[in-house]
Amino acid sequence: MLEIAEARARLSAASAVAVLTGAGISAESGIPTFRGPGGLWRNLRPEDLATPEAFERDPQMVWEWYLWRRGLIAAATPNAGHRSLVALEQLKSRFTLITQNVDGLHDRAGSQKILKIHGDIWITRCSECPYQRRDRSTTEAPPSCPECGALLRPGVVWFGESLPRIAWDEAERAVSQADVLLVAGTSATVYPAAGLLHLARCVIEVNQEETPFSHRVAISLRGTCGDVLPRLW
Length: 233
Ligand code: BV8
Ligand code: ZN
Hints:
Strand content: 15-25%
Order of helices and strands: HEHHHHHEHEEEEHEHEEH
Helix content: 25-40%
Bound molecules: ligand BV8, zinc ion
Number of helices: 10
CATH architecture of the largest domain: 3-Layer(aba) Sandwich
């Protein structure tokens, strides 16, 4: 595959590399994607689940959805796609992994420099005050904040909520300074994350299907993360 050789050449010549991952990189670990067949949103629309209004309206339903997802994620293990990014990080002096995923599989694979721009499902935080904790508990209902008594919620970014300031600023800087932005397993439909592709000098995309950016990136590799990524370095 000519494009693979071209992608390998560009990545090996790059001294600064940024990577953006989406749900597609965790699909081969058995975690359903958001918009694919059998996706997490299948019977409900994102607006029904991942929004502050939904949590306000029905905290129990939203909490249970995250509990179900935590169960899926706890049973999953990182795959060759996650592991290949650990190897790439060790090869590059300047490397930043930006992920939209909240599953923590990049951490478990051994990646070091991770910017979680949509938060972390293993964090539980207060809906009112700054209180938060790492949380693997499986309490059936959203607990109350020990500091202020308000309801606790998953430490993820919902639709309509702004992204974590520090992580987002670092992500923008890393992409604008990178020689190559490698985009793996994302439909590139959620903003502002997808906007990072506009900042990059050179984008290499790895996706099973076409995305809105496939015709505008330097190289668009069609295939699974688990198969393609390990062949790129
Ligand atoms: C904000 C965390 C404002 C929670 C998530 C209209 C136009 C443009 C934008 C908007 C609009 N209306 C509203 C907006 C803004 C909105 C948005 O972008 N909406 C979209 C739907 C249009 N964005 C927001 O609300 C953001 N906040 O704008 O705030 C603001 C500004 C200032 C001050 C205050 C407020 C917040 C967005 C974050 C939402 N949170 N998740 C949780 O996880 O529960 S988004 C959710 O979608 C996940 O994070 C996920 O990562 C993300 C993106 O999805 P993908 O990761 O790409 O997954 P998807 O299933 O879509 O695609 C999978 C891809 O993988 C596919 O392409 C598939 O082909 C491929 N694939 C599958 N298997 C494989 C594979 N590829 C390779 N190998 C495989 N094996
Ligand atoms: Zn509180």
